[in-house]
Please model this.
Amino acid sequence: MHSLRSLLEKFVKEYGIEGSLVIEDIRQKWDSIVGDTISQHTYPELIKNDILTILVDSPHWLHHLGFFKLKIIEKIAHYGIKDIRFQLGKLSTRKEKTISHTLSQEDLSFVEDTVRSISDSDLRERLRSLLIHAIVRGRVKS
Model:
């Protein structure tokens, strides 16, 4: 008699949904894998041939993430990921969806106008996150 686990594993492999399960698990754990700051600018898009494609929201972060590539691979190696590709693209994370539903266009404009003049990109991104968080929590009025 086969165990339920072995039957499920066989089913997953036969129908080619193993990659879908892995990418979904990575997405759910993404904040803890890369940390809050990086996760706000990235989204694990797909896995193909043991290569994880990660969408990145800006050229600055695309360049910056090259320095973290090996650390990220180490953290997800147990998923069978052997390499990572970073690709510039629009993020489709739950966080963005929540923010876009919570913040009005006026709120988003206020945030962008406030951070626009800050030349240090890391500081600008941190302030942007803090302002969004404060507006969502009702602590700042735009």
Summary: Confidence is low (pLDDT under 50) at residues 93-101. The radius of gyration is 19 Å.
